[in-house]
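User: Structure please.
Assistant: Input sequence and predicted structure:
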Amino acid sequence: MKNLLSRIRENKIIYILLLTVIAAAFLTQAVIYAHQLPSRVDEGSFLIKGYYYVKGIYRPFQDYGPWTNNMPLAYYIPGLAQAVFGPGLKTGRYFAIFMALLMLAAVWLLLRRLKGRWWALAGVLFFALNPALIKTYVQAVSQVIVACLLAWSLFFLIGEKRSLAQIGLGAFFCALTTLTRQNMVFMMAFAVLYAWIIFGKKAGWVALLCAGLPFLLVHLLYYPRIISLWASWLPGFILKLIHYQAVSSGNVEQVWSPDIGLLTRFTSFFTAVRYYFVPLIGVLLCFILLPLKEAWKSKVEHQTVFLLGVLFTIMFLMHAWASLGKNYCVYCFPIYLAFFIPIAVVMTAIVLSNLAGIQPKIKLFWVLLIGLFFIPGAFLGSLETVGRRVMSLAVPRIKGGRVLEGSTELWKLFSNRFGFSYEDLLPYIAVAFGLMVAVVFLCLGWLAFRGFGKRKGLQAGNFILVVLIAVSLILMPSPLLADMQTSNTCGGDVLNAYEKAGAQLNERIPAGVTVYWAGGSVVTPLLYLTDDYVHPQLLNGVYSKYLGGERDELEKKGYYNAASIEAWRAEADYIVNSNVKMVGSWLTFLNSDDYDEYQHTDALDPCDPSTFLRIYKKK
């Protein structure tokens, strides 16, 4: 058996075949999801702004232009693809797939250099088995761009033998990552510290120059408005020193301010846990083994894992605070981790390769703790799928301590006994069931160790941990771990629906007119009206809308209020509204005396025929 496995490991044809299958599986899923996923809020915003910026229609942070709420490259990179291949959701998503493939290439090349080709294969396999991550990366937003730039920065930086040119290039990619999303700023600090500690002062200065210079140049180019991106980071005295004013004078409040409960914050956190189950376990293993120098193949590897671990922890906590600690986007925590999850994948490959080779002892205590935290957590993070299935499990009917004939649903057993509602019981029953599964799994793992692992001279903690990771990889595409729910229940082609509706918009609305967009925060259809004037402040939908404030001050900074809406829709040549939003005052405003209604577009959601756009022309 050992000889057979050895021959397989050494066979290049088998390796190439497996790598091809994994890459093809990733690409196939990416294309399918790109066509099926409904467009989300940020997609249209990034793509349209990017197109405008590349074409010179607006520039980032321009007065009375779009709200530039991210670094310029978040728009310029996808905007370049829009300018070259034509604006549209299909262009944006196919470009995202291209960036995802580049990211995979960087991860594979890095791990092949660090740990060999089979661990490189394992690193790529994680992405191919993870539907949630693929669905995140195929959307035309900045996650995949940042992940790609980050992966290439690690490729150039990480390792024992790096030239000054490679170090400089890695630091430059760290700067590009930060200039795409400001929340990645610690990548620049990592580049400088890593180069300084691993390769010495000269390398550190090279990294500082190559990361700092482009960062400073971009800030000088867009000063002072670019400072708004750092307003929540900077101390108050600095903001006063530069006379920074956040929004507008007077009583002003952002419209988007949801009230999110504690349970939702917990489920968002554990949704991230189940999406990235194996890499997060890998990061924890790295920290567990860091005190053991004998667990690492070299001093450089030990230092590398330590620095990567510090970087990952800082960014994990920072993004947890930005999402779970605030109300703006609590549900964003899982997709925020997609920015930098390649770091965790690299750390996991390093630590697992050492477990297979050096075989440092993992205390059983840590494995039990991991199992009892991660497994119930996965159930809490999948309440809407696995949790509800658990609630409906058939169990014997019990009354007065006696088992009766027939069965009932699990939740009704507790509801009848204690009087709690279905929704009240959902998180508690799901977590309790997950805890029971964890205990059963760990007990079975212990029995398997006693019957097999112990005879092979294996450590109990190591054995059960390997079984946990193996089972997790098998279950990764399942609803318990990395399967992401979407609203496309019929499997319809969203891309073709947008292309068709966009062509109809373009055909029915002439170029050069003013269009008021009333179709909601998903502004993606405006990609097909780039020759018309659309008020740029609307490109962030409700997220750039404020209550109160001075209209001119708000519009100058890319925001708007109710007064803006009244003025814009009154002066617009055309109004485009979503059919589902034709309620209330819109029914009165868009009356037949003042507006002609054109033939509406086809549905944007192929699963919901009511999601068409309605087009009105002022008489």
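DSSP finds 26 helices and nine strands in the chain.
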